[in-house]
Write a structure and sequence with these properties.
Helix content is about 40%, strand content about 15%. By secondary structure, it is of the alpha/beta class. The chain has two domains: about 240 residues, UDP-N-acetylmuramoyl-L-alanine:D-glutamate ligase, CATH 3.40.1190.10; about 110 residues, Protein-Tyrosine Phosphatase, Chain A.
Length: about 375
């Protein structure tokens, strides 16, 4: 384990109560020591990782030095830090960690959360880049990434997720995301029409201009995300946009086809379930598990018409739904199930439910 990993793994993923001063104060301590790239801030419920990578890849194809900061990771923390087509190495993570440690006060070193610290790590990692595509972790307004000055806000599809932190209604969820808006914003095609009026209200209050992504009917959600990325780059004046979605490699776990018969997706809410179900033709065996705060019943109801059988993949997480409760739900929904053992070439599989499920599947089966 590297020194950076040892340090970051000792930190809490988040705190139960939001401290509105901690991240802004830490950012102010170090910001003058770095050349901050132009920031494209990507916020939403679904599609942040793929939309952000499409933006970064097209900027790179136009000759810019560009970074992409995304989260969470599946296998290694390096996955969060992409630059010019490659993940940042262990050695560079350690070097950037040492730079940041020299600049941060001991107080901030001690109190910053896991995500807050990795967000600050983007300063030494990307200080030679022209552009940085920065993906929000949770919400928008109070997210650690929102302390950075932004050139453009990009809002991906918004739906229900993380209600414990963001609120139970779409109004509450969308509002906290939209209040991160910069002076110029792009919004993806939305499932819920009310999202547009919520953004219009927030944009008017902030004096922001909003541009809408127009998409043709029949596009997959990956292709829709690609169109959002192209719209963002058109606004930035990028000249060469003669690309298609299949020209680029997405971050791991985004409708990732690792074999002809196995697709991985890190989705974990109803909107992602609808989109994945629409993207995969025919029936499949669902390799699945869920955290207990996710709408697993609704997700399984959405996927049921395409499920041959659910293969339950145990995950090591205190937040996982109990096996008893998951099996009870499957019985009530009349979905056959068994424990996951291994895959077979004769069956088609979707691995779905969370980053944890995809991570565990990769450990066991690959």
């Amino acid at each position: 384990m590297t020194k950076f990993e040892e340090f970051i793994n000792s930190k809490p993923m988040a705190y139960k109560e939001i401290d509105l001063n901690r991240m802004p104060e830490a950012f102010q301590e170090v910001r003058e020591s770095f050349e901050i790239p132009h920031i494209i801030h990507v916020v939403g419920t679904n599609g942040k990782g793929s939309t952000g990578r499409f933006i970064a890849e097209m900027l790179r194809a136009n000759g810019f030095k560009v970074g992409h900061y995304t989260s969470p990771h599946i296998t290694t923390i390096n996955e969060r830090f992409w630059r010019d087509g490659e993940l940042i190495s262990d050695d560079e993570l350690d070097r950037s960690h040492r730079v940041l440690q020299r600049l941060l006060s001991k107080k901030q070193q001690n109190i910053l959360s896991y995500f807050e610290y990795t967000t600050l790590m983007t300063l030494p990692i990307y200080d030679q880049c022209h552009w940085l595509v920065m993906e929000a972790g949770l919400g928008g307004e109070f997210d650690a990434t929102n302390v950075f000055p932004k050139k453009l806000s990009v809002f991906t599809p918004i739906g229900f997720d993380h209600q414990f932190f963001l609120g139970e209604t779409l109004e509450e969820i969308a509002s906290t995301k939209f209040r991160s808006i910069g002076k110029v914003a792009v919004i993806a095609h939305q499932k819920y029409d009310e999202v547009y009026s919520i953004l219009e209200r927030v944009a008017t209050d902030n004096g922001s201009r909003v541009y809408h992504t127009k998409v043709k009917k029949g596009l997959s959600f990956i292709e829709e995300n690609f169109e959002t990325a192209k719209k963002a780059l058109q606004l930035l004046g990028v000249m060469n946009l003669e690309f298609k979605a299949s020209d680029f490699e997405l971050p791991s776990g985004r409708l990732e086809r690792i074999k002809d018969n196995i697709t991985l997706d890190v989705g974990h809410n109803t909107l992602s379930a609808e989109r994945v179900a629409g993207a995969i033709k025919g029936k499949f065996r669902l390799i699945y598990n869920s955290l207990d705060d996710k709408p697993y019943r609704e997700i399984l109801e959405i996927l049921k018409p395409k499920i041959e059988i659910v293969e339950i993949l145990p995950i090591d997480d205190d937040r996982a739904v109990s096996r008893e409760e998951l099996e009870k739900t499957l019985i009530e929904l009349d979905i056959p199930f068994q424990e996951f053992k291994s895959t077979s070439k004769k069956n088609k599989y979707l691995v779905f439910g969370s980053f944890k499920v995809v991570e565990e599947f990769k450990k066991r089966a690959l």
